[in-house]
Write a structure and sequence with these properties.
Elements (H helix, E strand, L loop, with lengths): L9 H18 L3 H10 L6 H7 L6 H39 L19 H15 L3 E2 L5 E2 L1 H4 L18 E2 L5 E2 L4 H11 L5 E10 L11 E11 L4 H16 L3 E7 L5 E11 L7 E9 L1 H6 L8 E8 H9 L12 H4 L3
Parallel strand pairs: 1-5
Antiparallel strand pairs: 2-4, 3-4, 5-6, 6-10, 7-8, 8-9, 9-10
């Protein structure tokens, strides 16, 4: 139905239309019939709303009263539709309960709940452990500048360390961050030289890597930073030993092996095994003492303070914790995988 123009018969037509639609609603024999009435008589292109659009053609003194009358008619019809639907629903329930095969005391079908992703589980556990040690959880942008992702981390443009990471470059000249270390720099800058500073930075990182059972182009890290006067390698080893003991349960042994990372000096790979066991040493994370140039870039005075930093992959921790053999399951979105946790 199209627009209805202005004229002396508009009020009469409104009354007639309202009565006709009410009769159709009363005569409707199913919920589908009610939906058909709603799609036609109460739709945007229906005659009722067409009358509303015709108000502009009425004399100014009549517009308000007629607009109110149209709104009241629409409210009446919508209320009638609601009442009729309620009647259908009540009749359906009555039919169901009248069936002698229906037992209202029978337990309902169990509905499965949601599942936390294993990475979420591990991340929350790590955050709880570090917050118990006085660390704060901080975050930063996933799209980073070259300055924060490389330059301020002692990785200038000519540095061979840039070849260690397959970076995803954007047309803007920015990068998808290859690690969460830029968040540590931002935390140092916000501290404005004040110590102690204790933060962890969990989050997604991106590298243009070939996917296989142990590599993904999108994965998760948690990096930590502690800066204060007199922080040493002993503090680094002590904090990480305590964290890994709480994370894996029971006392663990750790060992540090020299390793190169451009943003720490000295740098280490940390291995772990159960205390007192003959278990194989497991490579867990990279760490080291924050490089003086990185401290300077973050607004810290390396002659007055020192600090340690570390980084570990959440996927690796989750795979160890839950016996997951292929990292690609983490990003698959397959409910069969998630329902196991």
């Amino acid at each position: 139905m199209g627009d209805v123009g202005a004229g002396p018969g508009m009020k009469q037509r409104l009354q007639t239309l309202t009565r006709e639609v009410l009769e159709r609603i009363d005569a409707a024999g199913s919920e589908e019939a009610l939906e058909a009435i709603e799609r036609t008589d109460l739709a945007r292109k229906g005659e009722l709303l067409g009358m509303m659009r015709g108000i502009k053609d009425l004399p100014a003194e009549e517009r308000s009263a007629f607009g109110q009358a149209v709104n009241e008619a629409r409210a009446t019809l919508e209320a009638a539709l609601g009442s009729k639907r309620e009647a259908f629903l009540s009749a359906r329930h009555a039919a169901e309960t009248a069936d002698t095969r229906f037992d209202p005391s029978e337990p309902s079908i169990a509905v499965g709940g949601g599942h936390l992703h294993p990475i979420t589980r591990v991340r929350r556990e790590i955050e709880a452990i570090f917050m118990g040690l006085g660390f704060s959880v901080v975050d930063g942008p996933e799209v980073e500048t070259e300055r924060f992702n490389f330059d301020l981390l002692n990785i200038p443009s000519h540095h061979p360390a840039r070849d260690m990471q397959d970076t995803m470059w954007l047309e803007s000249g920015q990068v998808m961050r290859t690690h969460t270390s830029p968040v540590q720099l931002r935390a140092m800058m916000r501290a404005n030289g004040k110590v102690p500073l204790r933060v962890i930075a969990p989050g997604r990182v991106f590298r243009n890597e070939q996917q296989d059972a142990t590599h993904e182009h999108t994965f998760h890290q948690v990096e930590g930073l502690m800066i204060d006067e007199g922080v040493s390698v002993a503090d680094l080893k002590g904090v990480l030993t305590l964290v890994l003991s709480r994370l894996f349960g029971g006392t663990v042994e750790v060992r540090l092996r020299p390793h190169y990372f451009p943003f720490v000096e000295p740098g280490f790979e940390l291995d772990m095994r159960r205390a007192g066991s003959d278990d194989t040493w497991l490579e867990m994370l990279g760490c080291g003492m924050v490089h003086p140039e990185v401290l300077k870039g973050g607004g810290m005075d390396p002659t007055r303070v020192s600090g340690f930093a570390f980084g570990m992959g959440l996927e690796r921790l989750a795979m160890m914790r839950y016996g997951i053999e292929d990292v690609r399951w983490m990003m698959s979105g397959d409910p069969r995988f998630l329902q196991q946790f």
